[in-house]
Design brief:
Elements lengths: L1 E5 L5 E5 L4 E3 L5 E3 L7 E3 L2 H16 L11
């Protein structure tokens, strides 16, 4: 089971259930137990998709593009 939560900087993250801490790319170390859990999903792939969907809802079009498409 994977938990979907947000950092104080606004980034959406996921972590495996039972893990005590998770480090965000902003550098902050988060205690997973103290975070508000937005979703629970079964697999890592579902967690990755859920994070992408939530980031897209919050920040708009966040899709990656190939350099050749620019």
């Amino acid at each position: 089971m994977y938990l979907i939560f947000r950092c104080d900087c606004g980034r959406v993250l996921y972590g495996k259930e039972g893990v005590a801490t998770r480090k965000c790319v902003c550098g902050k170390t988060l205690k997973v137990k103290s975070r508000r859990i937005f979703r629970k999903v079964a697999t890592r792939e579902e967690a990755s998709e859920a994070v992408q969907e939530m980031q897209n809802e919050i920040y708009g079009n966040t899709d990656f593009k190939l350099a050749s498409d620019l």
